[in-house]
C-alpha cells in the first residue's frame, strides 16, 4: 500500500480523521488498476488527500469537484471516478451539484469527509453542523437544524448510499470498494473527526454501530438514516441504468 503514498510533507493535524480516510481509500483501490482511477477533490483539508496519494488526481474549485468528476466520466466512461469532498464543499458551496448528480445517477463515487465544519478556513458552521455548534461564524451557537446527508441523497436519487466512520478503516475500505464497483451514483458520508475544531471521537466511539444492509426499499433506508443513533454501513442500493449508460445507450432496452 505504501506505493500509493507520495513522499511529501503531510500537513493534516496529528490525530485528524482524514488519515484514516486516506488509509481506507488506499486499501479500497489496492487491487484495482490505478491507471483507470481518477480522484477529484474540492478545496479544504479533505482535498489534501490528492497531494498524498499516488494516483491520477485533479483539484476542483471549492464546491465544484462533482461537476469536474461528471465531465471526466462522460469524457472517458471507462474510468472509475472518485470524488473526495467536504461537507462544506458539497453540502454548502456545491449543494446543487451533488443533488443533480444523485438525480442523474452519474456513475461516480462521492466520499464526503464530514467533519461538520469548514475546517481549513477555521471552524465556520456548515449544513451538517449540529444545532448549537459554536464556531467562528456562530459564536453563540448555530440556531439551525442540520441536513441529514443520507436522507437527502436517498431522496435525490442516489443508487448507493452509505456511511462509514473514519477510524473503522477496514469497514470503510470495504464500503469504498463496493461503491466504486456500483454502476450509478455512489455516496459515502464519512464521519471524520476534526481534532482541531470539532473533536467527535469520544462521542462517535460511543454511538457508532454497524448496520447490516443494504435494502433496495427507500422507506426502510430512510427509517435507518433518520435514527438518532449512528449506524454505519450500506443503507441503500438499487440497480438502475446510470446516466452514462443512457448517454451511450449501453445496457438500456
Ligand atoms: C469559491 C470559494 N469559496 C470559498 C473558499 C474558501 N475556502 C477554502 S477551503 C474552505 C472550507 C472547506 O470546508 P470543507 O469543504 O468542509 O472542507 P474541510 O476543510 O472541512 O475538509 C473555504 C470556505 C474558496 N477557496 N473558494
Ligand atoms: S483542521 Fe481538522 S480537518 Fe483540518 S487537518 Fe486539522 S483536524 Fe483535520
SSE topology:
Blueprint: H1 18-29, E1 37-41, H2 49-52, E2 56-59, H3 65-75, E3 80-86, H4 87-93, H5 95-104, E4 109-114, E5 117-118, E6 124-125, H6 149-156, E7 160-165, H7 169-181, E8 186-191, H8 201-207, E9 208-210, H9 218-225, E10 230-237, H10 243-247
Helix pairs in contact: 1-7, 4-5, 5-6, 6-9
Bound molecules: thiamine diphosphate (TPP) and iron/sulfur cluster (SF4).
For this entry, give a set of tags.
about 250 residues, alpha/beta, Rossmann fold, eight-stranded mixed sheet, two-stranded antiparallel ribbon, 10 helices, globular, binds thiamine diphosphate, binds iron/sulfur cluster
Structural notes for this entry:
With 253 residues, the protein is of the alpha/beta class. The protein has a single domain, classed as Rossmann fold (3-Layer(aba) Sandwich). Helix content is 34%, strand content 19%. It contains ten helices and ten strands. The chain has helices spanning 18-29, 49-52, 65-75, 87-93, 95-104, 149-156, 169-181, 201-207, 218-225, 243-247; strands spanning 37-41, 56-59, 80-86, 109-114, 117-118, 124-125, 160-165, 186-191, 208-210, 230-237. It has an eight-stranded mixed beta sheet, sandwiched between helices. Strands 5-6 form a two-stranded antiparallel sheet. Strand 7, helix 7 (169-181) and strand 8 form a beta-alpha-beta unit. Helix 5 crosses helix 6 (149-156) and helix 6 (149-156) packs antiparallel against helix 9. The chain is globular, with a radius of gyration of 17 Å. Residues 42-46, 61-62, 86-89, 93, 113, 115, 117-121, 126 line the site of thiamine diphosphate.
